[in-house]
Q: What sequence folds into this?
């Protein structure tokens, strides 16, 4: 393999047929380029999706009440389901081992005012635990705690954008902002990796809001995280049990999906990962088909080259070349061309990805890149491809009868 | 050195079978210079191919340096060719992208001789054929006679038992032909066994023995008075 004579011969044939070698190599280089780009694109999509969901804890379940679509247990269809504090406590007590954190959510909108600045923002009344469920990152001050919650304190944690809008350059912590005319003390500012709207939001204790809005016990939604050690099967099993329990409690038909909806992140995540897996598989298959075309191209050229060199192989055999040595010569040449041109394609794709990849940052597509394992796999595929491309022509060359060289006068 | 007994060979041509060699008995001692003559279709090339292990016989015996040559697979044949035989072709068959030196060194490469020794040996043989100064030249830069001398050096390089020359002067003018024959005679003088296939009478008479083939059988086998080629050069 590291024989100077063999390499000399390979370089020589390449030198003699520059255009042919280039065209041959191009097909394989192109195929590898497409393979890497496709995989990188799928990777980018995956990054995009995962980025979207990373915003929240991935072991989250949301229980969302709605309007029943089926008559059940003496109730007619079209009944609005209302969750209350009792429901939350009931769930907490029913699944002590399954639940990690649980919080109610109460949605409303408010006009917020500080000095001369006003703005309209959505407000969520939640439990202190919601900070962990939503992965809210407090950048200054603090989130509200159990004491605030029990005291129904008029405190608010505002999004970064809200702070910028209302307080401009002033430090909002400790200041009082009016929410719908009631003074709330700002105790924290948070940031959120989701979109801009996620930072144009205000959190306040659920208890406070329930009191403001007429001493109600109503909750719009229950959010909870389950035991993080659960795998997908266990997680799905838990949300199933949760759904059955809640439907029974609210007297909703077990088949009625609009009465109560239990939405599990794990399920969505599972869907996404199988989606990207399928995409990846399609990408690999397509790239492979292109690669096969490239291999056939190389094989074709090699057959041609060998036909041209028939006499030479005949002479070599007359001089004592064994068939194996001829096979090696041809194989090494085709492997060399494929590997080299494949590397060029690989490098090209890599450079483009390194330059362009990090600048792409959209919700559905972010930082397309390839793992080094992909690069290594592609390299191995290349070498195998080179061997495959050269194999048939090489065997053909080895079977050249030396008599051909002799009788050819 | 060479012993052939009752050698038969036929080629299938569609449904017909062409019987080319019809029982050849032939032997050559070490140091002989034998011309094999015959018109085209007489079977002389077929005989040379079988002697050169480029083709197998249908029946009969072939011993080369007391080694029975039979049931050869490609690899074995290649090894025997490399060890026992040197080929000289009408059309030289030099590898056109290799220098004269590399061409001569090629059989040694297949003998797995290391590069340095190979080059030294090859240069020695090029010197013997008077082409030392042309060592780095490509075949395309050499004249016909020079090419054939490189080819002869190549055949000699592996130090074979027998040299097989198939119309070695067929592509050369008469002066160059005599130069080549002069070289062949000198190699023979040094004790090498050489078989020359030719259809030229004057070339045949520069050998020591002439074997005539006709329709697949030897019709004449005689020792002759060798004509030295040197007098024409």
A:
């Amino acid at each position: 393999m590291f024989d100077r004579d063999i390499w000399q011969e390979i370089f020589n044939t390449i030198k003699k047929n520059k255009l042919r070698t280039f065209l041959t190599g191009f097909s394989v280089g192109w195929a590898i380029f497409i393979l890497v780009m496709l995989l990188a694109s799928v990777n980018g999509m995956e990054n995009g999706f995962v980025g979207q969901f990373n915003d929240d804890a991935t072991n989250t379940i949301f229980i969302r009440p709605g309007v029943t679509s089926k008559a059940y247990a003496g109730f007619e269809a079209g009944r609005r389901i209302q969750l209350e504090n009792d429901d939350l406590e009931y769930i907490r007590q029913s699944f002590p081992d399954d639940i990690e954190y649980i919080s109610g959510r109460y949605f409303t909108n408010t006009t917020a005012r500080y000095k001369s600045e006003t703005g309209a923002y959505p407000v969520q009344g939640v439990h202190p635990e919601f900070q962990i469920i939503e992965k809210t990152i407090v950048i200054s001050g603090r989130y509200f705690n159990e004491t605030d919650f029990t005291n129904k304190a008029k405190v608010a944690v505002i999004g970064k954008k809200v702070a910028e809008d209302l307080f401009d350059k002033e430090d909002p912590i400790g200041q009082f902002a009016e929410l719908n005319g009631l003074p709330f003390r700002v105790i924290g500012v948070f940031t959120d990796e989701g979109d801009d709207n996620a930072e144009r939001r205000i959190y306040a204790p659920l208890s406070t809001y329930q009191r403001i809005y007429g001493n109600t016990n109503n909750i719009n939604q229950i959010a909870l995280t389950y035991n993080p050690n659960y795998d997908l099967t266990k997680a799905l099993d838990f949300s199933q049990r949760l759904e059955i329990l809640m439907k029974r409690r609210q007297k909703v038909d077990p088949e009625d999906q609009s009465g109560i909806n239990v939405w599990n992140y794990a399920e969505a995540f599972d869907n996404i990962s199988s989606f990207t897996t399928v995409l990846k598989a399609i990408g690999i298959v397509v790239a492979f088909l292109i690669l096969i075309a490239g291999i056939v191209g190389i094989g074709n050229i090699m057959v041609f080259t060998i036909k041209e060199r028939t006499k030479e192989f005949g002479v070599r055999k007359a001089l004592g070349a064994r068939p194996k040595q001829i096979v090696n010569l041809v194989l090494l040449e085709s492997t060399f061309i494929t590997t080299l041109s494949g590397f060029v394609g690989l490098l090209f794709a890599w450079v483009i990805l390194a330059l362009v990849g990090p600048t792409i940052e959209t919700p559905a597509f972010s930082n397309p890149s390839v793992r080094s394992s992909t690069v290594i796999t592609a390299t191995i595929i290349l070498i195998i491809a080179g061997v495959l491309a050269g194999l048939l022509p090489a065997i053909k060359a080895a079977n050249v009868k030396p008599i051909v060289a002799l009788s050819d006068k | 050195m060479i012993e052939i007994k009752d050698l038969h060979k036929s080629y299938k041509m569609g449904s017909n079978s062409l019987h080319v060699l019809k029982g050849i008995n032939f032997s050559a001692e070490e140091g002989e210079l034998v011309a094999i003559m015959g018109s085209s279709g007489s079977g002389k090339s077929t005989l040379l191919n079988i002697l050169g292990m480029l083709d197998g016989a249908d029946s009969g015996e072939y011993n080369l340096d007391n080694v029975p040559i039979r049931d050869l697979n490609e690899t074995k044949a290649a090894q025997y060719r490399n060890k026992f035989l040197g080929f000289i072709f009408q059309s030289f068959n030099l590898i056109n992208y290799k220098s004269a030196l590399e061409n001569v060194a090629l059989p040694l490469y297949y003998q797995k001789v290391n590069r340095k020794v190979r080059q030294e040996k090859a240069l020695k043989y090029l010197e013997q054929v008077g082409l030392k100064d042309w060592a780095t030249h490509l075949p395309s830069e050499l004249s016909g006679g020079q090419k054939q001398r490189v080819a002869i050096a190549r055949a000699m390089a592996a130090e074979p038992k027998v040299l097989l020359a198939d119309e070695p002067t067929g592509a050369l003018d008469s002066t160059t032909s005599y130069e080549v024959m002069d070289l062949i005679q000198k190699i023979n003088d040094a004790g090498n066994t050489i078989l020359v296939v030719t259809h030229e009478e004057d070339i045949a008479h520069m050998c020591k023995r002439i074997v005539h083939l006709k329709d697949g059988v030897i019709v004449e086998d005689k020792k002759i008075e060798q004509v030295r080629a040197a007098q024409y050069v």
Notes: Chain B touches chain A at residues 45, 48-49, 52, 54-55, 74-75, 78-79, 81-83, 87, 89-91, 93, 95, 97, 102, 106-107, 109-111, 115, 154, 158, 166-167, 170 (CB under 8 Å). The CA atoms of residues 82 and 110 of chain B lie 7 Å apart. The first strand of chain B starts at residue 2 and ends at 13. The radius of gyration of chain B is 18 Å.
